[in-house]
Amino acid sequence: DAGVIQSPRHEVTEMGQEVTLRCKLISGHNSLFWYRQTMMRGLELLIYFNNNVPIDDSGMPEDRFSAKMPNASFSTLKIQPSEPRDSAVYFCASSFSPGDQPQHFGDGTRLSIL
Amino acid sequence: AQSVTQPDIHITVSEGASLELRCNYSYGATPYLFWYVQSPGQGLQLLLKYFSGDTLVQGIKGFEAEFKRSQSSFNLRKPSVHWSDAAEYFCAVFWMDSSYKLIFGSGTRLLVRP
Fold first, then answer.
1. How confident is the model at residue B28 (pLDDT cuts 50, 70, 90)?
2. Nearest residue on chain A to B5, alpha-carbon basis
3. A15 touches chain B (CB under 8 A)
4. Which of A52, A79, B39, B63 could be a cystine partner for A19, CB 3.0 to 4.6 Å?
């Protein structure tokens, strides 16, 4: 079975540009989580969805960040405009429900903002 | 506030030696406990998990962990380390309350001496 698929694996762009990260959930999973990993803050939850609805976005750093689930199997995380401090590895994970464990992680997108 | 502590930032062991990585958590409710491993440039791989029952759990790659409720700890062990075990290890804790958040420790980087 295919796991959580993230694209792109690497993204390098200049500050001010819009960045879109993509995530495909495991088939049948209804919950989607976006995490960010940095040296300073480690792994932190940004937002999670259940049945396409955002449940908790308290970890989203600021309004430049937005996340959507246009359908049950796909999610995007957008940063507009991007800043150098957004450079990090972004992971998404999915599960059957918010309480279902463990979450299944994608391989991450390494984002560098110049 | 819920927190997970991995007190060792780096650990160096010789190949063939035993290993113990420490993890402590706060908060009183019974948690779900996980250990993940991350190789450089890679995603998170689940090593093992504890939900309930036997407090000594076996995982992949010869790892095991023991849940000690009285000490709020979930330490990871391996009797004989291989060079391929060099990676970063993350302890994560999930509390089944309204937050549904998986909280990660800051990680321990394992270096293996030949």
1. low
2. A42
3. no
4. A79
Q: What secondary structure letter does DSSP report for A39?
A: T
Structure tokens at A61: 């750093």
What is d(CA B53, CA B66) in angstroms, rounded to the nearest whole number?
Answer: 11
pLDDT tens-digit map of A36-52 = 999 889 999 999 999 99
Give B19's DSSP letter.
E
Q: Please tell me the distance from the alpha carbon of residue B113 to that of residue B48, in angstroms, as a whole number.
A: 25
Tell me if A99 and B96 make a contact (CB, 8 A cut-off). Answer: yes
Residue type for position B62: G
Q: How far apart are the first and last CA of chain B?
A: 41
Amino acid at A108: G
Tokens of B96: 């089944």
User: Which chain B residues have a beta carbon less than 8 Å from that of A106?
Assistant: 43
Question: Chain B within 8 Å of A36 (Cβ-Cβ)?
Answer: no
Between residues B99 and B24, the one the model is more confident about = B24
Interface of B with A in 53-82 (CB under 8 A): none
Confidence of residue B77 (pLDDT cuts 50, 70, 90): very high
